[in-house]
Amino acid sequence: MTTTSDRAACDAAQPDQDLSRQVQHYYGTVLSSSADLRTSACCDATALPADLKPLLARLHPEVLARYYGCGLVMPPLLEGARVLDLGCGSGRDVYLLAQLVGPTGSVVGVDMTAEQLAVAREHQAFHAEQFGFANVQLLEGRIEQLDALGLEPGSFDVVVSNCVVNLSTDKRAVLSGVRRLLRPGGEFYFADVYADRRVPEALRLDPVLYGECLGGALYWNDFLRLARQAGFADPRLVEDRPLAITDPQLAARTGALQFFSATYRLFHCDSLEDACEDHGQAVIYRGSVPGQPHQLDFDKHHSIETGRVFPVCGNTYRMLAESRFAEHFSFIGDFSRHYGLFPGCGGTLPFEPGGRELPTAGAEAGSCC
Asked: Residue 19: pLDDT above 90?
């Protein structure tokens, strides 16, 4: 027998189910290529590093044409890693990652849109021949239901997603699922769209705005709250840029709302604190991460110069010491002393409205946030 509470739960879930179907329709039918997008939200304006350009040139043209991303989700030190790509679409990032992890690594792509996934699968053999190895698995499924895909908990070194979490109707479930699948010391490295305030419900339910990665954008501070609730105690902003809504009709609807594309890295470290605490610690970067011989751009506030003693909070110390970055650093100090909150930590809007370059080496040595 159906109870009143059952009907209420069903009614509450209906808008989310409708949005999911609209997203599938938008990306499976409405958009035939990235040229069909009406805003810059799902277009990657990040300059592709020189070392990735030859890898991109190996990808099938159809895979490239049906790419919808807002950032670069290729963190360093991926060789031999097991990587999960959430919302992999037609597979551009999957096939770039496949080359970066190499024959000893593997990449699993997950997407709920059958039409997009069909493109990725159609060219799977082509890419295996191009690379000289086959290390890609493609799964159809919802990123809110990662536990239904038969993936082993704690089996991934890195999880990535590119402008996809905003399309999810249950972002808490996505973050919790990612945390469950990451190995200790693993990280969720992803680009997405955020708003400077909470998006009104009327805009959130607009199918075009949602499909353009704007309607589902989280208010940045709500994202930080959700991440911490999911067990990622200290989300780190890597880079950000303001988004232009170039379609006049959509711009009129969004009004004063400001949107940003931002890349975050979230580490699975159980011992992280909920604030940047000062334990008198420091690290020295050895200059050994490929492509970054002079400094390591760890996040927006940590550009660590090679050979220089670089003061860090306890959380940064742990992120480096407990992750795949450990062998590239020397570590000074421990947790036996405490000097209070690390200088420079705050809670204001973290994004730069006009955009901002990474700080010069050592320029932010006294600030974590």
From this structure: no
Pairing of strands 309-312, 281-285: antiparallel
Tens digits of residue pLDDT in 60-105: 999 999 898 888 999 999 999 999 999 999 999 999 999 999 999 9
CB of 160 closer than 8 Å to CB of 73: yes
What is the chain's alpha carbon radius of gyration, rounded to the nearest angstrom? 21
Strand order in the sheet with 281-285: 309-312, 281-285, 329-332
Residue 311's nearest CA partner among 362, 352, 269, 271 is 362
Question: Sorting pLDDT into bands at 50, 70 and 90, what band is 33?
Answer: very low
Instruction: Kindly report the three-state secondary structure assignment for every residue of the chain.
Output: CCCHHHHHHHHHHHHHHHHHHHHHHHHHHHCCCHHHCCCCCCCCCCCCCHHHHHHHCCCCHHHHHCCCCCCCCCCCCCCCCEEEEECCCCCHHHHHHHHHHCCCCEEEEEECCHHHHHHHHHCHHHHHHHHCCCCEEEEECCHHHHHHCCCCCCCEEEEEEECCHHHCCCHHHHHHHHHHHEEEEEEEEEEEEEECCCCCHHHHCCHHHHHCCCCCCEEHHHHHHHHHHCCCCCCEEEEEEECCCCCHHHHHHHCCCCEEEEEEEEECCCCCCCCCECCCEEEEECCCCCCCCCEEEEECCEEEEECCEEEECHHHHHHHHCCCCHHHEEEECCCCCCCCECCCCCCCCCCCCCCCCCCCCCCCCCCCC
Q: Is the dihedral of CA 158, 164, 166, 169 positive or negative?
A: negative
Largest CA distance in the chain: 69
Q: Do residues 254 and 52 lie in contact, with contact meaning Cβ atoms separated by under 8 Å?
A: no
If we measure between CA atoms, which residue out of 201, 262, 210, 215 comes closest to residue 27?
210
Count other Cβ atoms within 10 Å, centred on residue 52: 15
Buried b (16+ CB within 10 A) or exposed e, 216-241: bbbebbebbebbbebbbbbbbbbbbb
CA distance 105 to 366: 37
